[in-house]
Amino acid sequence: MKNKTLAAWLAFLGGPLGLHRFYLHGLGDTLGWLLPLPTALGVYGIQRVQQWGLDDHLSWLLIPLLGFTIAGCALRAILYGLMTPERWNARFNPQAAPDAVPGRTGWITVFAIALSLMIGTAVLMASLAFSFQRYFEYQIEEARKISQ
């Protein structure tokens, strides 16, 4: 029996590592094994910024990967948490009754939804702001080089 609350928390806390995918679909899930790749690339981008500074162009591409992965997993946690018990049990617990306990939404599930919404939105906005700020600063620097 797959529990909706546990799946929502796993998607929120361990989603970038694919933990929710492994819980729901097993260790043979390809997407679960692919999720750590953008996470690792984003962490590598953060390390590049710490080592070479904000002028490193590759880090401009890598850091948003981490942010978008975290935001996507937070969105997945919200979707799991808001799924109706009937739909949850039909999809993940087909042998159970439509209103079985593992598909019900409790307060712990609501907290997972709320935290996913707050933190996922903040990470997404920060990733977008970082990307656009770096892009526009680069454009201004290039325009200065051309004008001189």
Task: Indicate the topology.
Layout: H1 4-14, H2 19-25, H3 30-34, H4 36-52, H5 57-82, H6 85-92, H7 107-147
Beta-strand share of residues: under 5%
Report the count of strand segments: 0
For the record, give the distance between the C-alpha atoms at the N and C termini, rounded to a whole number: 67 Å
Residue runs with pLDDT of under 50 for 5 or more positions: none
Gross geometry: elongated
- Major β-sheet, in short? none
- Annotation field: number of helices: 7
Which labels suit this protein?
7 helices; 148 residues; single chain; mainly alpha; elongated
Write structural notes for this entry.
About 80% of the residues lie in helices and about 0% in strands. It has seven helices and no strands. It starts with a helix and ends with a helix. The model has no long low-confidence stretch (mean pLDDT about 90).
